[in-house]
Amino acid sequence: MVNVFRAFRRLDLKRLVLILAFFGVLLTLGNALFAVYKVQKDLMINDTLDSNRVYATKIANVTDLFLGSVLSQLEYTSDSLKHAYSNPDLLNSELERLLHQTESFNSTIFVDNKGKVLAVSPSTLNLVNTYIKDEKALEPLTRQQTYISEPFLSPVGNLIVSITSPVFDDQKRFIGFVGGAIYLQEENILNQILDKHHHNDDSYTYVVDQNGHIIFHKNVSRIGEKIENNKIVDAVLAGISGSMLAPNSYGQDMLAGFAPVRLPSWGVVSQSNKSATLDKVSNTIVDVLLSTLPLIVLTLLIILLFGTKIAQPLASLAQALKEEGLNSKFDANKINTWYFEADYLKQAFLSSHKRIEQTIQKLDQDRQKDQLTQLLNRRGMEKALAYFVANSQSFSVLALDIDHFKKVNDTYGHDVGDIVIKEFAALMQQCAREQDLVCRSGGEEFLIFLPNVELDVAYKIAERLRLNIEAFKFQQVGNVTTSIGISQWPNISDDIDTVLKQADRALYSAKEAGRNRTHLAECT
Ligand SMILES: Nc1nc2c(ncn2[C@@H]2O[C@H](COP(=O)(O)OP(=O)(O)OP(=O)(O)O)[C@@H](O)[C@H]2O)c(=O)[nH]1
């Protein structure tokens, strides 16, 4: 977790803006694509269900119409055959007319009431005078009415549906039936009607008979197969028309529309594979993505440009601070802060930079000054001495010490002593030239540096100062005197420490000699 925060701290504003923008664009795009996908998916499912239902209904109606017309043709033929059944030529020509004129059947047949085939067209089937044995084929003899059979194998091995009409003579005696066969696994009128599919896709239509046997299917090998455990087939065979999403016999989800055929209780199912249908939606999404890609790239480029522009002033400020610090010489004014926050930060940077410089300067000065007298302290004095040495600046130095100062403190108190020290300092400052440096070297001890002043002149200056002090009326204590020792650099010694020590010694000697006097140091 800590590492994650560290990694984040190394990220700059530009990258953060870009990462944020990138994820923003991705999220918006993902959201939009998801919404499009969802709407398209629902639309596509509902649309496919609906169009399959409409198509199944249309096919069921057309099939009903076709079968109705076929039955009428058969009834007409059976009526015309009641006088001609004993005449083979008439029988054959009537069956041939039925076969070719209507083109509804693959073959036509006339069977007498004993099950004997009296005529067949085309004649190549060679069934004349044979007896039909298949129970399903003989069903019309029992029913003696128009009849549409279940699929069964014909005597010559074709899987067929036979449509028959009984033939009665004038005395209403049943003399046989005339029938037409539709070969389910070959080109026939039914698949001509059913195969004209409405979609140019993987949708397909199939028809089941009343027992769930497939009568028509695009996969011919499945014709005759019985469909079981299929909700769609169960619904359509229950006479219901509609649509539903349900798995087919192979467990694949299908978008099915279905409608029953009325004459025989067949069912028409038109269906599309759900996943194949949704693939089209996925393709649409890919198309949408591809068409919006240039705009997304453009958006990202604009964000990159603006992100860089926004981050630039802040990055420059941060870089300058990192490399140079607040105390640097770097000029923040050069940074183009073109918007409010960056400009505000720059101004804050500039003013704090200025404040720090002033504070440092002041601290530096304070460090060199004595707080009570505002004279240079030892640190300031050392700096001045270093300057003199560096510039080979000769000077005389006066070492001053207030006489009997302990008595002042003892008599008037420490605070009054402080006032005396302040007045004493002010007096020295007054008497000094501009280039002279007055320092407080200890409690009531002072040093005055006189640049370019030889010992004899220094002596005169010291004496004048001493007399001024002697004559001065200090506020509460009246008169105070001072003793002074004088030394000179480099005449007394070229070693600064020795020069100062000699000044001290001269001062001590002045004290020894009775105070309120000036003594010169001796050369070493
Ligand atoms: N009020 C005050 N007294 C100080 C200060 N610094 C030093 N003193 C006092 O100055 C006195 C110095 O006394 P001494 O060094 O004994 O010498 P003196 O009494 O001045 O006598 P001589 O120097 O021998 O003439 C001491 O009593 C110190 O406490 C200060 O800043 N303020």
UniProtKB/TrEMBL annotation:
UniProt-listed Gene3D superfamilies: 3.30.70.270, PAS domain (3.30.450.20)
Cofactor(s) required, per the database record: Mg(2+)
Cross-referenced SUPFAM superfamilies: Nucleotide cyclase (SSF55073), Sensory domain-like (SSF103190)
Gene Ontology terms: cellular component: plasma membrane
Region forming the signal peptide: none
GGDEF domain: residues covered: 393-523
Catalytic activities: 2 GTP = 3',3'-c-di-GMP + 2 diphosphate
Matching Pfam families: dCache_1 (PF02743), GGDEF (PF00990)
Family annotation (InterPro entries): dCache_1 (IPR033479), Diguanylate_Cyclase (IPR050469), GGDEF_dom (IPR000160), Nucleotide_cyclase (IPR029787), Rev_trsase/Diguanyl_cyclase (IPR043128), Sensor-like_sf (IPR029151)
This protein's record includes keyword rRNA-binding: no
Enzyme Commission code: 2.7.7.65
GO molecular function: diguanylate cyclase activity
Record's protein name: diguanylate cyclase
Phylogenetic classification of the source organism: Bacteria, Pseudomonadati, Pseudomonadota, Gammaproteobacteria, Alteromonadales
